[in-house]
Amino acid sequence: MKTLNIFTRLCTALLSIAFIAVLLFYTSTYKQSVTDGLNACGNVLVPSLFPFLFLSTFIVESDCLSIITKRLGIVSRILGISKNGILTLMLCLIGGFPVGAKTISTLYREKKISYDEAKKLCYCCVGAGPGFMITFVGQGIFHSKALGIMLFFSNMAGVLFILFIHRRNTPDYTEINSALPKKGIGEALVTSTEGAVKATLSMCGFVVLFIVINNLLSLIPFWNGYLASMLEITGGMINYASDMRFEFVGALIGFGGICVHFQIFAIVKDIRINKGYFFMMRALQGVFSGLTLHILLRIFPVAQETFGNMDSPPHPAVYSTLWGAGAVIILSVIFLLSIKQNHKNNQEVNLCAE
User: Which residues contact 345 (CB under 8 A, 6 or more apart)?
Assistant: First the structure.
């Protein structure tokens, strides 16, 4: 074991030195890559995902949907997850890749799901949202909303398939945190905003890093769109999806990309999951999503011209809206004001104590 650790550290050191040398040699490439990554975060990821990250945490913190989840006992037993686990599944399918992981982390921290179920959900609740698949990939890249809808349902089928594989470990359905005090709306708002900000910054950091790595690897002759998409899905879809069969696009989105995997690892760092097993589940989910999409395309055929290449790549702001940007600004202002108010309250408490 000691020899293996030494070998691992040595390889990491050599790769780091090699990466520094590549950065020094291809200065213009990595600088442009950083710019592209920051533009993708500012124009696409932050406006489209920040509101979902905030809302997923706020729903859990405020416990506003408990009146619904408590009445889903039959559904929870069919799926093999607790009633609170159903909330994770819903937000995963609606919000996209990091939202499911953020919900799992919040539920576990608030003791609303057990450690075993949190670990199980980390393997299952990983999927792209309808905004990415229908609006961005379907309409933006292939000019077909119908294809985007089929892509969404195939991805949903992949998530449910992985969940079905793990159904044998059915958790206890009792309320884990029934004795814990409920949080008020104001406290939930502050906690949710702070958590969403941290998750968004972490997510953007990984995206910029992997776009840099992807663009540097594109200098290698054998590097292609499939490898690029497996590494970072958003850039891969923008640059290469129009040249692929749609079944492969569905499989790659089901897989999620290494960049998304690292984002999830960062968000659920308090839950020790087997990363090799997680990777295997993503590969299996990708294959199942691609096969499901193939069947859907046989049942609901689409005109061949839909798959034709576009004259120009889609603009990253396809599913970035003014409303999304406005929501980010408003929530950021609320966050700052809440911090100021909390600081003032703490000062008042200290004065009273003196």
Answer: none
pLDDT tens per residue across span 43-92: 777 877 788 778 877 887 777 777 777 777 788 888 888 888 888 888 88
CA distance 154 to 253: 10
Q: What are phi and psi of 26, to 5 degrees?
A: -110, 60
Query: Distance between CA 234 and CA 87 in Å, rounded?
Result: 26
Q: Could you give the residue ranges of the DSSP H alpha helices within the chain?
A: 2-25, 27-40, 46-62, 66-69, 73-79, 83-95, 97-109, 115-124, 130, 145-165, 185-217, 225-231, 233-240, 246-255, 258-267, 275-299, 322-353
Give the span between the Cα atoms of 339 and 232, in whole angstroms: 35
Q: What is the pLDDT of residues 107-134, one digit of tens each?
A: 898 888 889 899 999 999 998 888 788 8
Which amino acid belongs to residue 100?
G
What average pLDDT is seen over the chain? 78
Q: To which residue do tokens 């799926």 refer?
A: 79
Residue 94 tokens read as 């609606």
- CA dihedral 334→339→344→349, nearest 10 degrees, is 120
- Which amino acid is it at 307? F
**pLDDT tens-digit series, residues 262-307:** 989 988 988 989 999 999 999 999 999 999 999 999 999 876 454 4
Q: In 10 A of CB 277, how many CB atoms?
A: 10
Tokens read off for 108: 């576990």
Sign of CA dihedral 205, 207, 208, 214: positive
pLDDT at 321 over 70: no
Handedness of CA 256, 257, 259, 261 (dihedral sign): positive
Q: Distances in Å between the alpha carbon of 300 and those of 47, 150, 291?
A: 33, 9, 14
The position carrying tokens 């980010």 is 328
* Dist. CA 140–CA 312, nearest whole Å: 11
